[in-house]
Design a protein that fits this description.
The protein is elongated. A hairpin with a 6-residue loop joins strand 1 and strand 2. It contains 4 helices and 2 strands. A two-stranded antiparallel sheet has the order 1-2. With 128 residues, it is mainly α. The chain has 2 domains: 2-84, no CATH class; 90-123. Bound molecules: zinc ion (ZN). The site of zinc ion has 8 residues, from helix 2.
Length: 128
């Protein structure tokens, strides 16, 4: 298995090496053949002598997509932050309900049995 991977790696490497002398390249993304110049294919970060397998247009598209995704993510984060803020704006009823839920949970943890409705009823009107 490792041997096969090694062969594949060798072939890929060979293809990369031969890419240097080719005069046009088919973009790995849009599959359009374009002249193999820096005008159409940007240089690779690691090895500036080699050009990307994706054309500049596709790279740009990818970058824009990435930025859009990033922005969407931040948007969601922003909304989440806002949501965190609105938690403080619970109505009195909601607060009571949440307190009851919390108390029922604590009661169950402490006594290992669910709280009774009567006990919950007694909680009504308890201030924070
Ligand atoms: Zn392309």
């Amino acid at each position: 298995m490792i041997f096969i991977i090694y062969i594949v790696a060798l072939i890929q490497n060979y293809q990369k090496e031969t890419n240097v002398v080719e005069e046009s390249r088919v973009c790995s993304k849009c599959k359009i053949e374009k002249p193999l110049t820096q005008e159409f294919f940007g240089p690779q970060q690691k090895n500036k002598a080699r050009l990307h397998t994706e054309c500049r247009e596709c790279k740009l598209k990818y970058m824009k997509q990435w930025q859009a995704n990033k922005r969407a993510e931040q948007d969601v984060d922003g909304k989440r932050d806002k949501h965190m803020y609105t938690i403080k704006e619970y109505t009195e009823e909601e607060k009571q309900r949440l307190m009851k839920e919390a108390y029922a949970h604590i009661y169950y943890q402490a006594f290992d049995r669910p709280i009774t409705d009567r006990q919950l009823k007694d909680l009504e009107g308890i201030e924070e």
